């Protein structure tokens, strides 16, 4: 796949969760944020995930992809969506290629004094039941979990 193009979200055949999981790769450029939102909404709506969770998932993927664009020198960003019927959770994971040779910062929650920037992960934390980070090669995988159903979301 050429880096200038985006890929359609595809279910991962033979993977755990079968068609309840999809992965897509995006070129690391600003218009990929909107594409990530659109692919996320489309995949989750196809699985009959409630509208509120689809909206929240689109917000979360937007924040995570934006962080990967702003805080890394990635040429591509990989998004992975999993709808787990056993736990009733939707998991969103975004993986970048790392901070580059200068070792620049990866995303972090906002600190005092971050007036215009740094609120993305605070927002992700506020709307998610759980979130975290994992080293992934030279890059970082940032994930968040959401309740699949609006009833559970209202109770959380």
Automatic annotation (TrEMBL):
The UniProt record lists the keyword Transferase: yes
Q: Does the keyword Nucleotide-binding apply?
A: yes
State the InterPro entries in the record: Anti-sigma-factor_SerPK (IPR050267), HATPase_C_sf (IPR036890), HATPase_dom (IPR003594)
Which GO terms fall under molecular function for this chain's record?
Answer: ATP binding; protein serine/threonine kinase activity
- Domain Histidine kinase/HSP90-like ATPase, by residue range, is 27-141
Q: Which domain of life is it from?
A: Bacteria
What Pfam families does this protein map onto? HATPase_c_2
Q: Where is this region: Disordered?
A: 96-117
Q: Which CDD domains match?
A: HATPase_RsbW-like
Sorted alphabetically, the keyword list is: ATP-binding, Kinase, Nucleotide-binding, Serine/threonine-protein kinase, Transferase
Its protein name is: ATP-binding protein
The lineage is:
Bacteria, Bacillati, Actinomycetota, Actinomycetes, Kitasatosporales
């Amino acid at each position: 796949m050429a880096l200038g193009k985006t890929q359609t979200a595809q279910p991962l055949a033979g993977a755990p969760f079968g068609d309840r999981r999809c992965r897509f790769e995006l070129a690391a450029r600003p218009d990929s944020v909107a594409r990530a939102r659109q692919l996320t909404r489309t995949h989750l709506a196809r699985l009959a995930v409630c509208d509120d969770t689809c909206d929240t998932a689109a917000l979360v993927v937007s924040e995570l992809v934006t962080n990967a664009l702003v805080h890394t020198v990635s040429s591509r960003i990989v998004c992975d969506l999993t709808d787990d019927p056993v736990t009733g959770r939707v998991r969103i994971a975004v993986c970048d290629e790392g901070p580059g040779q200068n070792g620049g910062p990866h995303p972090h929650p906002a600190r005092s004094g971050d007036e215009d920037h740094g609120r993305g992960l605070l927002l992700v934390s506020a709307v998610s039941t759980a979130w975290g980070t994992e080293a992934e090669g030279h890059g970082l995988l940032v994930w968040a979990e959401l309740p699949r159903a609006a009833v559970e979301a209202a109770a959380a």
